[in-house]
């Protein structure tokens, strides 16, 4: 039986509330100050204009584990990290952390702007609990990793955001703390540095517990072996099934209303429906990989005399454009009948990889393609497959033996 590694971070029933009104917040703070002397009985009760930023969150993080903390803006991620890092006090619950903690929770956090990069390395190392001799041994590695040697003796206030991220991550990672907390700051750096950070995380992870916060699901999937999905301060999913939590994260976007970016009121979308569906999950239609892709459109024609051009774009779960369905030609069979334009758009064999996808609609007219209607996220659908992939396409392929025929 495999021996479990020690628990480095233990969070039990953690809750934190804030007040939307400044004056009320000051009043509540004063009342709580006195009530704490005799035991605060209202720590888990909401008062007027209060809300839960974090509510009853519990988890354990062991050495060698990387917990991905995901959720939309305002879900409570940053509040939770600030509690873990000791910057704010929880209203209820308990946090136990063993060992040295390195945190990258805000851009430039922990840096003294008037000190040089070199001086800040010593300051941050001391905060982590390392002696000057220990920092001296790591100093050159930190400077090399950050790739800012020519600027290391310049005040940090003159650094760019990318330089601050490089230096902050270099100190936190190269000093190899027991617990490393990373909050979205890697998104500021360039791709090359992000890849180097991921490689470093792989190296230190066996001896470290990492709490990783990001809106980049490919990065979360690549790094994390545990997942915690927050929504309005509450944990709605946690465990080792990272892909399921990511699916839940993406599917929540489908509840947003379609975004009408442009409308000259000459044509109106009445209906869009995915046909030939395999099933539904949370009202999202599902297709199997390589199924026929059929979309039924109905438009109300207000004052057009001819059929416009319909452009249907497919965006992936990271909101990147991945495909354009071939546009209708001038000799199309589509007609205007009873002030309606109705058609079915077909694609014989959909080979998008497993995941959620979004359709954006653009309707235009004439040689200059003058815009008539533009709507984002007119339809959300899910492709079903047994394999999780981050590339947007899984192309059907065949492997054949050449049998000596390659030169024929």
From TrEMBL:
Q: Which PANTHER family match?
A: TEICHOIC ACIDS EXPORT ATP-BINDING PROTEIN TAGH
Query: Of which family is this protein a member?
Result: Belongs to the ABC transporter superfamily.
Domain ABC transporter residue range list: 28-257
| Top-level division of the source organism's lineage | Bacteria
Protein name per UniProt: Lipopolysaccharide transport system ATP-binding protein
Keyword set includes Nucleotide-binding: yes
Q: Which InterPro entries match?
A: AAA+_ATPase, ABC_transporter-like_ATP-bd, ABC_transporter-like_CS, ABC_transpr_TagH-like, Bact_Polysacc_Export_ATP-bd, P-loop_NTPase
Gene Ontology CC annotation, any one: membrane
Coiled-coil ranges (or none)? none
An example of a GO molecular function for this protein is:
ATP binding
SUPFAM superfamilies reported for this sequence = P-loop containing nucleoside triphosphate hydrolases (SSF52540)
Record keywords, A-Z: ATP-binding, Nucleotide-binding, Transport
């Amino acid at each position: 039986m495999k021996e479990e590694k020690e628990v480095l971070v233990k969070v039990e029933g953690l809750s934190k509330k804030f007040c939307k009104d400044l004056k009320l917040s000051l009043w509540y703070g004063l009342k709580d100050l006195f009530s704490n002397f005799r035991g605060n009985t209202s720590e888990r009760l909401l008062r007027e204009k209060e809300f839960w930023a974090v509510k009853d969150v519990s988890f354990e993080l062991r050495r060698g584990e990387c917990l991905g903390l995901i959720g939309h803006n305002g879900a409570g991620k940053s509040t939770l990290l600030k509690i873990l890092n000791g910057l704010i006090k929880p209203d209820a619950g308990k946090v136990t952390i063993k060992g040295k903690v390195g945190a990258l929770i805000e851009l430039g956090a922990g840096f003294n702007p008037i000190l040089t990069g070199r001086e800040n390395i010593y300051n941050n190392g001391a905060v982590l609990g390392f002696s000057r001799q220990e920092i001296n041994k790591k100093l050159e590695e930190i400077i090399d990793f950050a790739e800012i040697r020519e600027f290391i003796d310049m005040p940090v206030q003159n650094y760019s955001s990318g330089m601050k991220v490089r230096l902050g991550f270099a100190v936190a990672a190269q000093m190899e703390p027991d617990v490393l907390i990373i909050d979205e700051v890697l998104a500021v750096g360039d791709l090359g540095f992000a890849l180097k950070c991921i490689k470093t995380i792989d190296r230190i992870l066996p001896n470290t517990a990492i709490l990783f916060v990001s809106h980049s699901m490919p990065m979360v999937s690549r790094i994390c072996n545990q997942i915690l999905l927050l929504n309005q301060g509450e944990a709605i999913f946690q465990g080792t099934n990272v892909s399921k939590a990511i699916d839940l994260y993406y599917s929540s976007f489908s509840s947003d209303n379609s975004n009408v970016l442009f409308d000259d009121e000459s044509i109106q979308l009445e209906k869009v429906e995915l046909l030939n569906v395999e099933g539904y999950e949370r009202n999202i239609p599902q297709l199997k990989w390589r199924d026929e892709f059929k979309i039924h459109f109905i438009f109300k024609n207000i004052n057009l005399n001819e059929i416009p051009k319909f452009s249907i774009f497919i965006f992936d779960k990271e909101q990147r454009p991945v495909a354009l369905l071939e546009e209708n030609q001038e000799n199309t069979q589509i007609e205007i009948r009873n002030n309606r334009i109705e058609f079915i758009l077909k694609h014989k064999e959909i080979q998008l990889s497993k995941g959620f996808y979004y359709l954006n609609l653009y309707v235009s007219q004439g040689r200059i393609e003058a815009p008539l209607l533009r709507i984002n996220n007119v339809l959300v659908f899910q492709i079903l497959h047994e394999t999780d992939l981050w590339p947007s396409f899984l192309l059907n392929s065949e492997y054949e033996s050449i049998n000596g025929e390659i030169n024929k």
